[in-house]
Design goal:
It contains 10 helices and 11 strands. It is α/β, with parallel strands linked by helices and 284 residues long. It has a 7-stranded mixed sheet.
Length: 284
């Protein structure tokens, strides 16, 4: 359920950027903790997609339930009305639908993020420039578990448990694995054992062997099983090291206050993992 003040402050920031924010008809509704029923939320999304005066769709917050609207919106709707959808966490379901339809999408902070930190925040400034047409380029410090190399591919990803939950559906962007993907993923509140299962789900599906590169974002609030792995990254490295592709760990994306770099999903990128750090360049 969205907070009225959060939405209002988010709209203030968007206005400062020179945009005219319009709040969806049901966006402030409440139903079992959601912003309205699934039908109401789907209705708002369809309205925003079909209205030619609306150029981008910003989620108010992540929360749960984004996946509930997908079966109410044919994939063709995303294809026929291409426009930015911005958000992260459970909004990954919307990104997956957009990218599956051949449309680019922006994994980024949402209304709560831009309202809390304001328009002058460095990460929000990247999002602002992106909306103005400037593709980002990132450089981050090296991590001891990084696997060096250079790869070029189509960037896709987001919340690991959300996109794994779409496996095999029409809205699953991993259906495009044959096109040469660079996958980024993050999560919060998921135990190491569950992340291990999701990793192997992608392996069994044949996705992991087809990836050109992997970007591992933040993992927070997770439980460790009785094992000798130092942390989540150590566990992931145990398996990912067997793939001869560049892998970047601890990239600033995900559930980390102030460090959730905007990522253009469906865009071609160059991932360069070097001994002195990692660069990600958006080229399309």
């Amino acid at each position: 359920m969205p907070d009225t003040l959060t939405v209002a402050k988010g709209c203030e920031t968007l206005s400062e950027w020179g945009y005219v924010p319009v709040v969806g008809p049901h966006a402030m509704n409440s139903w079992h903790g959601f912003a309205g029923t699934a039908d109401e939320r789907a209705s708002d999304l369809l309205w925003a997609l079909r209205d030619s005066t609306i150029k981008a769709i910003l989620c108010s917050r992540g929360g749960d339930g984004a996946v509930q609207v997908l079966q109410r919106i044919p994939l063709q709707e995303f294809h026929d009305h291409p426009k930015w959808v911005m958000g992260f966490s459970d909004a990954t379901a919307l990104h997956s639908a957009e990218v599956s339809a051949g449309v680019m999408s922006i994994h980024s902070s949402m209304c709560d993020g831009i309202s809390m930190r304001g328009g002058r925040d460095s990460v929000n400034a990247i999002l602002q420039r992106l909306l103005q047409g400037e593709l980002p380029s990132y450089q981050v410090p090296a991590h001891p578990l990084n696997q060096q190399g250079v790869a070029e591919g189509i960037l896709m990803g987001g919340n690991l448990s959300v996109f794994c939950g779409l496996a095999g559906s029409d809205y699953d962007f991993l259906n495009r694995a044959d096109e040469g993907l660079i996958l980024f993923f993050e999560d919060t509140g998921e135990g190491m054992s569950k992340v291990d299962r999701m990793l192997h789900q992608m392996e069994i599906r044949g996705v992991l062997p087809k990836l050109k590169g992997i970007i591992v974002g933040h993992f927070s609030k997770y439980k460790s099983p009785d094992c000798d792995f130092a942390d989540m990254y150590d566990m992931l490295h145990e398996y990912l090291q067997h793939y001869d592709i560049p892998v970047c760990y601890d990239f600033p994306v995900g559930h980390h206050s102030g460090l959730n770099y905007p990522m253009v999903e469906g865009c071609r990128v160059i991932l360069n993992v070097r001994p002195d750090g990692t660069t990600i360049t958006f080229t399309e």
